[in-house]
Prior knowledge:
It is built from 15 helices and 14 strands. By secondary structure, the chain is of the alpha/beta class. β6 (about 145-150), α7 and β7 form a beta-alpha-beta unit. It starts with 10 loop residues before the first helix and ends with a strand.
Amino acid sequence: MESRPGGAAGMAANFPEQFLVFLRENNIDPGVYDACETLPRYLRIVQHGERSSEEVLALVEQVRRDARCEVAEVAGVPGFLRVADRAVRLSQLQAHASGDVVGMDVSSGVAVLALGVEPGHNVLDLCCAPGAKLLCLAEGVAPAGSVTGVDVSPARIATCRSLVKRHAGSARMLVRLYAEDGAVFSARAPRDRWWDPQALRDSGRGRQQQRGGPWCGSRLLGTEYAASGGELYDRVLVDAECTHDGSLAHIEKYRDLGWHLLATQLNRGPDVPALQLRLLENGWRLLRTGGVLVYSTCSLAAAQNECVLAAFLARHPADEARLEPVFGEHCRRPPIPVLPAQAPPAPGDVRGRLQHAVRLDPRVSGTSGLFIARIRKLRGV
């Protein structure tokens, strides 16, 4: 593949000084962005688990014809496709127009796998926009679970709603969306057996919720009965707001928007770790005992990853919060190389508890950058 004008080889030379300072302060090698020219793009097959192997192979071949490059399934991450040419656009693909595939980096797929969702789980996606992981989670909890998505931006929630309506199929029955601040969100999981019409009739509380509540992909989820549960969530995903410096696709878009605008995404930089810790603490509060929370960001900065996690663990002792391997019985380790977590400035016992967190690095993993930690709640607080 030919290099594009102003390609990755000269990308760092185009970065504004404010962004270069950010990279230096966070010990991020600008050379990581050289991977922009060699990384593939990734797609996810919607409702992959409901398709036969023949249907999947036919879909792969269709994408290959439209993309005019090598396309292959990603080993160990079910439903993901690797498209060799990163320049391929979704608009080129008939499979995207028909709703059979969505754009989603495989690193995000690994974060979903790490959560270990099962059919019937109630899952909270505390920072759900733009919705690709939300959709994947909804498929994983079918047919009787639920996914509750939260984002502070009504516009981003509208994007999630459109994605669910277009792609989810039967999974749209499992999603409710709230335009609220995830750091203070308090709605519990839907009442047990919310999906059972007989339970709804027996409760005598089948009227719809008042206006102003969440958008629900199912009329059953929108009933007062479903919303009145006091249950905590089985799984919580905190894919926290961050500076997006590890998302190469996010950084690369400034090639067209103007490199000078790259500095604007750092305006909230100093405040981001505090927000991330609040999101993590609130997700933990809403997680049931025995449940699992995954904390992730697409930043490469330790201040937004290991340091936030260390601050959280300092508040929650080892007999309450236990980091577990990202890969294990809940998901087999895919053949994607990962890096260990960095050692943050924290007491030795806290640093030792970080050993199972991992980093996906563009140069090592062949994916966008992502930090992932899987935390088990051993007891209530």
